Amino acid sequence: MNWTWQRFADLGVERLYDVLALRCRVFVVEQACAYLDPDGVDRHSWHLLGHGDAGALQACLRVVDPGLKYVEPAIGRVVVAPEVRGTGMGLALMVEGIARCEDVWPGRGIRISAQAHLSRFYGSLGFEAVGEPYDEDNIPHQEMLRRSA
To answer: Which CATH superfamily is 2-146 part of?
Structure first.
C-alpha cells in the first residue's frame, strides 16, 4: 500500500476526484444514504489516501483539525473500496491514520463519529464509546474517543 498524507489544497484535482468518487460509491450508493458529502470540512483537514500497486485508490480517511468538530483531531470519512474489504485494509488505514495524528498532534486524543456496527472494530484500536448512540443520516452512530497515550 502506498500512503499519501496531504492537506486539501495539496491533493490536486485527480486525487480529489478519486476521493470523492470512492466516498460517493460507498456512502451514497452502497449505503443508500443521500447526504452532502462535500461539506466544507475537507478544506480544513488532512487526507490519508491508500493506493494499491496499480495506482487505484483503495482506502482513505480525513482528519479534521482540532477545534472544528471537536476539541481533539477527528478521524472521519473512513472508507475502503468494496473489492479490498476483508483483507485488513481497514485496519491498516486506521493504524496509519492514528499514527499520522500522533505525529501531527502529539499527546492529543482522537475523536470519531463511528457507525455503531463498527464500534467493536474501533474499540480494538483503543477508542471508547462516549455518550449515547445517535442517528446520523438514518444510520446509528456512536461518538468514540481514543485518549492520548
So the answer is: Gcn5-related N-acetyltransferase (GNAT) (3.40.630.30)
> What are the structural domain ranges in the chain?
2-146
| pTM for the whole structure | 0.95
* Per-residue tens of pLDDT for the chain, all 149 residues: 999 999 999 999 999 999 999 999 999 999 888 888 899 999 999 999 999 999 999 999 999 999 999 999 999 999 999 999 999 999 999 999 999 999 999 999 999 999 999 999 999 999 999 999 999 888 899 999 999 86
How far apart are alpha carbons 103 and 141 in whole angstroms? Answer: 27
Residue 27, phi then psi, degrees to nearest 5:
-75, -40
